[in-house]
Amino acid sequence: MKKYQVVTSVSVLAIVAMLLLTVSVRENKADQARIAATPEIKAFEVRSSEWGRHYPRQYSTYMQTKKSDAFIDVLGDLEPGLVINWAGYAFSKDYSRPRGHYYMLEDQAVTLRTGAPDPAKGIPSPQPTACWTCKGPDVSRLIARDGELEFFTGTWDKYGSEVVNPVGCADCHDPKTMKLVTTRPHLKRAVDASGILKYDEATQQDMRSLVCAQCHIEYYFKPTEWTDKNGEKKVAKVNTLPWDKGLSVEAIEQYYDEIGFTDYTHKLSKAPILKAQHPDYELFRTSIHFKRGLACADCHMPYVREGGVKYTSHQILGNPLDSIGNTCLNCHHDSEEGFRAIIKRKLERKYELAKQATVSIATAHLEAQKAWELGASEEEMRPALMDIRKGQWRWDFALASHGSFFHAPEEMLRIVADATHYGQEARIKLRAILAKYGAGDYVAPDFSTKEKAQALAGIDLLKESREKTRFLNTVRKEWFNEAKKKGVFDPQGEQDMIPFISAWPVPAEDGSTEKAPMETKAAGEQTPDRQATEKL
Amino acid sequence: MKKYQVVTSVSVLAIVAMLLLTVSVRENKADQARIAATPEIKAFEVRSSEWGRHYPRQYSTYMQTKKSDAFIDVLGDLEPGLVINWAGYAFSKDYSRPRGHYYMLEDQAVTLRTGAPDPAKGIPSPQPTACWTCKGPDVSRLIARDGELEFFTGTWDKYGSEVVNPVGCADCHDPKTMKLVTTRPHLKRAVDASGILKYDEATQQDMRSLVCAQCHIEYYFKPTEWTDKNGEKKVAKVNTLPWDKGLSVEAIEQYYDEIGFTDYTHKLSKAPILKAQHPDYELFRTSIHFKRGLACADCHMPYVREGGVKYTSHQILGNPLDSIGNTCLNCHHDSEEGFRAIIKRKLERKYELAKQATVSIATAHLEAQKAWELGASEEEMRPALMDIRKGQWRWDFALASHGSFFHAPEEMLRIVADATHYGQEARIKLRAILAKYGAGDYVAPDFSTKEKAQALAGIDLLKESREKTRFLNTVRKEWFNEAKKKGVFDPQGEQDMIPFISAWPVPAEDGSTEKAPMETKAAGEQTPDRQATEKL
To answer: Ranked by mean pLDDT, which of A512-521, B252-261, B340-349 comes out on top?
Structure first.
């Protein structure tokens, strides 16, 4: 093609583009006018279907989070070594890949991590109320009604019939203006304390990440003494972000070390362990995608076009590769096949280093257990246990983060490599101790399957599953009925939930023939359940 | 700006661009016509100044490689742990950052690694002739004259008065057509054997990397028996690329393992070590830059513009960041400051993991040495020594590669993390052995300075430096005079070399007052000098 032809073509294309833009702007303007004319939605409207009457496109895409419905038992199908590293903590019982937002309440009810509470019999959940923090718009309603400290006091079962609608419109939008807002008090406090930005000056693009960062972050439940209106002394476990010293894996570790925080003492090694939640936002901030100005929503809630209308899809994509043409390939100009081949190789690197770290740390736990059995002293063990703590913190920080590898591949490889390094440092120290006690050639037992690993961790999966089944068929059904009476239940959610609840098998009298949730692969999601507050 | 204004502006800009292009094309065409009219340059014209008479822009930029003249003593200024890892190998004596291509012959003469040969006294260099392979266009001339097997037979000093012009025009260009060509037989053989591409079908863009890959690769000197024309049996050490099984760090290791190759037995640990050369091309091929179609020349020899003429700069940039506006920022649309900040953080990650690997492997060597001293058996030591071999191979592969971190950051982090993992695996095994022999609490000696590390490695730096100084003032000067008589010396090179050679101090009778090259920081470059062929 000659050069003048290029010029002519460019001009023609530009004119066509201008015309198309004009049409599009007109349609978008019509849409905006409709939004402006919409009657205000009432404060604390927890029923997303109510919002959906006015915003049908956003609502119907939001409801598509239902499509991400695959149960993947991470402990069984992907990495049994996790069971060893989490021995003594609820995650060692049950940990599945997160499913769509739509399922978050059901998955939290089903997971073995929340236990089988029965208030009538005085059996509480092993988890605090704080585990509800991210589950849905009822939380903001309850904090407004009961106060933040009351909300964070007690065990998970306390709000079983109150938090009944999964994360929805009210969690991220102002009902009057539709503007993006954050509704959880912990985030604003942490943003301001960390100095990463001034919360009140956050841009729209900042908000397109911050609404996600209400939950997709590292946090802990800070024990906080308070006195209620009746003068009763209570301890709340307040959801708190450990960002005062920075957002890096090392800065957060320093925060925890300085306040002497530990999530749990490891059942096998007795190491004081920090459990990472899902520091997605923290890792994302280290990435080139963040530095180039992207927000979470750019890839996880891409713009879609229906006729002349362009809007943000609310089918929050756990994996933007599932809509690759709408997300990655917008900027990465490659064929889908070519792009996927690059990603595949990147992920192989992650799996390789992650596996090393998991195995190194799990082996260290088992070797430490052996050293204790042989009579090693606390003084002898302490340096190795502190290495295990450091290694496991890094390992968990990198792996617990959803999609950390996409968010920040180099940072994740660094952190996982550091994890292995500390795990191996622990093992070098433990090898000397084992040798001292006559077991220099000790070989840690096999933990290559979930069954073997859970046996080593002392977990009775069948017992846990049976109790859970009973809970789902009794207490959980009662919560459901109570919620209906309270009228806070989204009718759409109710409609969807009835078949779900009916699906649970009725336990046999002797428990022998019942089908336990874990056996049917009905596993839980990635809810935090940290509560231990033991000192280092 | 209104949309119709945008369209108008685009059109005007396109027209202006077209006019500019026309002017530029005209000037470039004039340039091309001049090239076409240039008399042919003779075959094996080793004098780059002769080529430069016809291609002044390329030649004058080529001569600017002289600007990269900083001596950086890596062992002393950056990482003394290298001395430990290379103990028993020439690199432990002396290793400096590579300088500009212009200096490659001088740097090879100066480095302690080539020793102080004195043919008149029957003292050979410790290095084979193969060390000349990449040093300049005289090599192709000698291979054509003497035959490849004769060229690769004997010690380095054999061609001291023959290889006298540093890498230049004839190494990469056909003298008749100016087309890019490779002139070293090892590359074509390896490319065809590896199947990465068909050499005879290489595109111009392939060639813009392959000419560099003649030297910027991993290789070894393959012992090859042959009989000369007089019936004398000889063994050549032929420069060979270990690519038959692939170009990854693991595939090349497999190649070496299968032929039982070892570069040297480690002086302290007795581990059978593989020394990586500089697998730049291999690592580059794993990178996103390569996958996006870039060639070495795109960043290291960027296009420059002088008036209306655009040409490839032949000032080969060791670090494209030194000309960031002409290289990185062409594609990475960022401010220089912003871009450098991103690079800085990326490099910090590399340094962190590289340091871990260096220290882990060096410590393993020293711990193994202790275990031997205490009476450990070969059978006991073998598993740990094989871990050291694997770890050090990965460590060296990643770090010896020039700029590996820019070429392939994720691949490099993976490899270095693997290196640490193997180093630590060795240390776990060694700890059990040490404990068995009563030294479970053994702490390896300090190697935090070059002096301490070289003392541990048994290097007499002053003696080596004095011998080198004598060599430079006697044998090396004689080589220079012989080369002048042979008439192959580029007059421009000669002019530059006289002050260089005169700068060497004359040694005192007792050697006590002379200034040794190492003391004046006149260190060497990154020439391979592998020669050990011991079996595993």
So the answer is: B252-261
Q: Can you say how many angstroms the Cα of residue B335 is from the centroid of all Cα atoms in its chain?
A: 31
Question: Is the minimum CB–CB distance between B19 and chain A shorter than 8 Å?
Answer: no
What is the per-residue pLDDT across A197-255, written as a single tens digit (0 to 9) for each? 999 999 999 999 999 999 999 999 999 999 999 999 999 999 999 999 999 999 999 99
Write phi, then psi, for B263 (nearest 5 degrees).
Answer: -75, -40
- CB contact B435 to A (< 8 Å): yes
| CB-CB under 8 Å, B11 with A14 | yes
3-class secondary structure, B437: coil
Interface of B with A in 442-461 (CB under 8 A): none
Shortest alpha-carbon distance between residue B367 and chain A (Å) = 12
- Chain B residues within an 8 Å CB radius of A424: 420-421, 424-425, 427-428
Please name the amino acid found at residue B507.
P
- Domain contains A9: no
In a domain, B441, yes or no: yes
Using the 8-state DSSP alphabet, how is residue A121 labeled? G
Q: How far apart are CA B37 and CA B55, in angstroms?
A: 12
Q: Which of A248, A424, A427 would best serve as a mutation to test chain B binding (most B beta carbons within 10 A)?
A: A424
* Residue to substitute from A328, A411, A413, A427, interface B, most B β-carbons within 10 A: A413
What is the β-pairing status of strands A309-312 and A303-306? antiparallel
The whole-model pTM stands at: 0.88
Please write the tens of the pLDDT for every residue from B311-359. Answer: 999 999 989 999 999 999 999 989 999 999 999 999 999 999 999 999 9
Average pLDDT of the segment spanning B290-299: 95
Domain at A195, CATH number: 1.10.1130.10
Query: What's the length of chain A?
Result: 536
Element (H, E) at A238: strand A233-240
Judge whether B17 lies within some domain: no
Identify which of A7, A424, A441 has the shortest CB distance to residue B11.
A7
Question: Which residues of chain B neighbour A342 with C-beta distances below 8 Å?
Answer: 288, 291
Whether residue A414 and residue B349 make contact (CB cut-off 8 A), yes or no, is yes
Domain of A458, in residue numbers: 48-491
Q: Is A458 left (phi over 0), alpha (psi -120 to 50) or beta?
A: left
> Can you tell me the distance from the alpha carbon of A460 to that of B506, in angstroms, rounded to the nearest whole number?
82
Q: What angle do CA B125, B130, B135 make, to 5 degrees?
A: 95
Note whether B416 contacts A416, CB cutoff 8 Å.
Answer: no
Residue A7 located in a structural domain: no
Residues A11, B6: C-beta atoms closer than 8 Å? no
- Residue A70: pLDDT band by 50, 70, 90 thresholds? confident
In angstroms, the CA A399 to CA A277 distance is 10
Q: Let me know: does A222 contact A238? Beta carbons within 8 Å.
A: yes
DSSP string, B344-356: HHHHHHHHHHHHH
What is the distance between the alpha carbons of residues B50 and B30, in angstroms, rounded to a whole number?
Answer: 22
Q: How many domains would you assign to chain A?
A: 1
Separation in Å, CA of A245 to nearest CA in chain B: 18
Q: Is B177 on the interface with A (CB under 8 A)?
A: no
pLDDT reading at A524 higher than 90: no
Distance (Å, rounded) from C-alpha A331 to C-alpha A344?
18
Q: Compare CB distances from A424 to B286, B349, B421 and report the shortest one's residue.
A: B421
Average pLDDT on B27-52 reads 78
B342 and A14 within 8 Å at the Cβ level: the answer is no
Task: Compute the half-sphere exposure of residue A387: CA atoms within 13 Å on the CB side of its CA.
Answer: 25
ipTM of the prediction: 0.86
pLDDT for position B497: 66
Would you state the structure tokens that stand for residue A81, as one six-digit string?
Answer: 């070594």
Which chain A residues contact residue B339 at CB under 8 A? none
In the numeric block, which tokens belong to residue B139? 């090599």
